[in-house]
């Protein structure tokens, strides 16, 4: 992977800070409406600097490098039995119907999109009652959920940092636009929650470029259910770059995780400084008050790329239930078996020192529930991730980003049927590391001692096609839908969806459905893809799955397109 800096890392044993710290907003405000932003800017120009812009800046943020990592910190309180992965080679019929298939931001959008040379698109989306908000890298749009038509004037999209313009010119969130976005629709309050990180760019003495402070989480919460309206704005300054942030909605807080990095002013070298997870006061943000947060930071390498639990459906978690967080130890190991790790974050905003990040079962600070995977689970493109995904007509390979659980960690309370967590990961196919396969995991009763890894299946038809960069969700019947990218030496990068009914036998998938055929290849030397996709469930019917990700229309360096697809199982009414 081409970078403007070399990447090193601290040893896991050196990262032991487990005391909660309080974080307060360094800036607050209220936004103008998106409608006014789009009228003032009928065609949105490119921002001068943004994350992962290969053509203009040659700047690539670290997405994982295991150089110098030691063995993970050990000592979980409780471990589940090893979860043996099932391998499904048959490709059956998915009993589902596609109802929507819209052009998203990127090539072909609204007749106004200009090739930006931005990699990766970091495609994310949230679904409201009547609207869709889609965000790719540094651009954001609001669409009608029925027709897919843009609801903003002019180009149909805005530069995402315009959302935080109400914080003023002294705010890094208002002046910088680097992407890594995640957004949600908080169905408990019918509010939209937007987030991205922000930083400035500096030059090292050797001429290399690197992200420089101030570093910040940027969060905006809508004042109504209308995504084009005004937002309550927050900037939270942190001491290190909070890379790859992920957002989960929970009754007590908005939870954001990140991988923290510091940078050398001499040679732009990036050093991994452990992971961070913060809980931000949801009620205060909705009210527009000066919402504080509670964070754990400096967490060891075993926490790399944690993803927080994100609620689906109308049933809330049990009272005072902690937020669930999933990570893995792929980052620190060189060979299987690997272990999924689940931690539980209980936040206490009244007395922050009482906040805990543990296994939730009486263990010490930073203890975790270990969920070992079977020895036939290997990382795609090598256990540290990397690029091995082939494309037609080019020797350029695509990045699998396999050493992390992929966003989202979908949580659903099914009442008498129990709770479940669902997510995907990219793994090797049939034990072959130099290949990207899609793995679906379902954890049932995550609050139990121990929880159960119920579904652990690698979808691996013998067709030579890579499947990776997935995202999953569940409907009100407990059925799972997930989507992902596909590519091979004969299949251009496109999109497919898959799934299983709750009543299906364990580890059985129904088969995949092609929802977007690719017609080009990405020739960038960066080899980046994704870095994530998004699957959401519709809050209106709790049946319809909405998926968005990128695909290629033309063979080019970075001329990607995105699609927004809706489908549901025929049995969900």
- Please state the CA-atom Rg, rounded to the nearest Å: 21 Å
Tell me the distance between the termini: 46 Å
Regions with little confidence, pLDDT below 50 for 5+ residues: 1-17, 42-60, 65-75
Global geometry: globular
The largest pleated sheet is described as: 11 strands, mixed
Name the structural class.
Answer: mainly beta
- Count of domains: 1
* Helix fraction by DSSP (H/I, runs of at least 4): under 10%
The count of helical stretches stands at 4
Return the average pLDDT rounded to an integer. 88
> What is the strand content?
35-45%
Q: Total number of β-strand segments?
A: 36
List keywords for this structure.
single chain; 43% strand; 573 residues; disordered N terminus
Describe how the helices and strands are arranged:
Blueprint: E1 7-9, E2 21-23, E3 27-30, H1 34-40, H2 54-57, E4 78-79, E5 86-88, E6 96-103, E7 124-127, E8 131-136, E9 139-144, E10 158-159, H3 172-175, E11 182-186, E12 191-203, E13 209-222, E14 231-238, E15 241-249, E16 253-263, E17 270-281, H4 282-287, E18 293-299, E19 307-312, E20 323-328, E21 339-346, E22 356-358, E23 369-372, E24 387-391, E25 394-399, E26 406-413, E27 419-429, E28 432-444, E29 452-459, E30 466-474, E31 480-487, E32 494-500, E33 513-516, E34 534-537, E35 545-552, E36 560-569
Parallel strand pairs: 1-17, 4-23, 5-29, 19-26
Antiparallel strand pairs: 2-18, 3-14, 6-36, 7-8, 8-9, 9-10, 11-12, 12-13, 13-14, 15-16, 16-17, 17-18, 19-20, 20-21, 21-22, 21-23, 24-25, 26-27, 27-28, 28-29, 30-31, 31-32, 32-33, 34-35, 35-36
